[in-house]
Amino acid sequence: MANPAPPRRSGAMKIRLTILCAKNLSKKDFFSKYTSLPDPFAKISVEGSGQCHSTDTCRNTLDPKWNQYYDL
């Protein structure tokens, strides 16, 4: 006997998204005479909902660590 499908929920559901880190990002400004590193951040948007979030900016690194979460 097959298992019945789980019941469907009606209405909005929430998802928690955690942005942990990035590693070995590429340096975009190859031709700059300055050797400073980028200030990376991550941007999250949910299509069709109008929700848009950004992580904090991590200064002067190619290996940023955020460990931030967003309830979408």
Automatic annotation (TrEMBL):
All copies of the C2 domain together span 1-72
Q: Which SUPFAM superfamilies match?
A: C2 domain (Calcium/lipid-binding domain, CaLB)
Its protein name is C2 domain-containing protein
Q: Which organism is it from?
A: Petrolisthes manimaculis
Q: List the taxonomic lineage.
A: Eukaryota, Metazoa, Ecdysozoa, Arthropoda, Crustacea
